[in-house]
Amino acid sequence: MKVQVGVSNRHIHLTKEAYKILCGDKEIEALRPLNQPGMFASTDTFTIKTEKSEIPNVRVLGPFREYNQVEISRTDAYKLGVNPPIRTSGDLKGSEAITIVGPKGELHLDEGLIIADRHIHLTPEMKKIYGFEGKTKVKVFIGGEKSGIIFNVDLKVSDEAYFEMHLDTDDANAFNLKQGDIVDIIED
Amino acid sequence: MKVQVGVSNRHIHLTKEAYKILCGDKEIEALRPLNQPGMFASTDTFTIKTEKSEIPNVRVLGPFREYNQVEISRTDAYKLGVNPPIRTSGDLKGSEAITIVGPKGELHLDEGLIIADRHIHLTPEMKKIYGFEGKTKVKVFIGGEKSGIIFNVDLKVSDEAYFEMHLDTDDANAFNLKQGDIVDIIED
User: Fold this and answer.
1) Residue A30: its pLDDT value, please?
2) Per DSSP, what are the bridge partners of residue A41?
C-alpha cells in the first residue's frame, strides 16, 4: 500500500481565545490550504521561546482548535533546551511548557509543547478498504539512499481525511524524504 | 549483535595547510578525545557559510587529514541552501562547495561538503569474529518509542577502530537516540 508523505515543520495550533491574546482583534487569514480538508497555513508566524532559547517564524495553522499546541522536532527541542514527549495531537497532559510571542501579546502554556508522533491520516472507509481494520499502528518502508523501516506509525482515523503520512522534519531529513514523496506501508 | 551509538554533530576535518590559512601559526589543541583511537575534538570552532546562510560554532576534529571535509546534516543543508551528497569520509569528488571562516582567514572549498553515510567503525578482526566477512553494509534495529530499522549502514574497517555506529543528528533525532545508546545489528 503506497502512501504520500507530508512533512510537518514546527507549527502552532491555537484556540480562538489564545489567538486574540496574541493578535488582538485581527481575523485569522489563510495563506494556503493544507492537504487535510479544511486545514490551512495561516499568514501568521510567531516566536516560540523557553528560558534557554527561542525559535522565530513558527507558522500558525488553522482553523482554531479546542486546545493550544506547539509541535516541534527533537532538533528544535535541543535548541530550546526542553524534552517534550512524543504525542498525538490533543494529548497534552504532562507535556512541556512553552511561551508563544505574538504581535499583540505573549501566551505562556504550562503544557502544550509536543513532538508529534508519526501518523497516517485516513477515513474509517479507507481503513476498512485498505485492510487495516483492528490495527492502530503500521510499519512503513522508505526507499532511497538512506532507506529503512519506521515502526509505530499511528493510524489516525477521521471522517474528513486526506490519505497521507505525516512525519516531522527529523524523520523526513533522516530518510531524505520530501513533501509528496511516496512510501510503502508494509505491515501492521 | 549490539553496537553503541555515536552521534556526529556537524564538524570539520582539515589538512595542516588549510588549518594554517584559517588559524595562522597556532598549533591545533585537543579539547577532548573521541572514541575512535587518536581522534579528538579540537578547541576550534569555525563558521561555515554559503551564499544563502551560515552556521557558526562548527567544531574542528583532529588530527589533520589528507583532505578538507565538512560534514553536516540534511537539516543543516536546508539552512545553508545546498544539496550535499551522502558520502563516506574522503569520497569528495563532485560534493558541494563550502566556505570555512577562521580567525585568521577564510577558505573556500569547491568540493568537500557532504552528509556522512550511516556507518559502523570496526577492525578487520572484529569483522571476522562478528560474522560480517564478505559484507559491506548491515541493517540496524533501533528500539524505543520511535523505533525502526535503518538500512545501508556501511561497515567501515580500519586497523585502529572503536566498535561504534556513527549517525548524524537527523538520524539520531528521528529515532530519539543519544550518544552511548545501544542498538542491534540485525542482518546484512
Assistant:
1) 98
2) A32, A61
- Partners of residue A79 in chain B, C-beta under 8 Å: none
Q: Of chain B residues 68-87, which have a CB less than 8 A from chain A?
A: 73-75, 78, 86
Predicted interface score ipTM higher than 0.85: yes
Q: What is the pTM of this model?
A: 0.94
B154: closest CA among B63, B62, B91? B91
Q: For residues A10 and A167, what is the distance between their CA atoms, to the nearest angstrom?
A: 11
Nearest residue to A43 (alpha-carbon basis) of A57, A60, A25:
A60
Q: Which of B170, B177, B181, B187 to mutate to test the interface with A (most CBs of A within 10 A)?
A: B170
Determine contact: B28 vs chain A, CB below 8 A: no
Nearest by CB to A145, from B86, B147, B149: name it.
Answer: B86
N-terminal to C-terminal alpha carbon distance within chain A:
12
Looking at chain A, which runs of residues are DSSP E strands?
2-8, 11-13, 30-33, 40-49, 54-62, 69-71, 86-87, 96-101, 106-116, 119-122, 137-142, 148-157, 164-168, 182-187
Give, rounded to a whole angstrom, the gap between the first and last alpha carbons of chain B: 12
Can you tell me which residue has the cell 495561516? A42
The set of cell numbers assigned to B4 is 553503541
* pLDDT for B32: 97
Q: CB–CB of A173 and B75 under 8 A? A: yes
Residue of A nearest to B177 (CA): A74
Cβ within 8 Å, pair B151-A150 = no
User: Residues in chain A with pLDDT < 70?
Assistant: 188
Average pLDDT, chain B: 97
The verdict on B186 touching A (C-beta cutoff 8 Å) is no
DSSP bridge partners of B165: B5, B120
Tell me the three cell numbers of residue B32.
577532548
- The CA distance from A170 to B155, in Å, is 24
Render the burial of A4-32: b for 16+ CB within 10 Å, e for the rest. Answer: ebbbbbbbbbbeeebbbbbbeeeebeeee
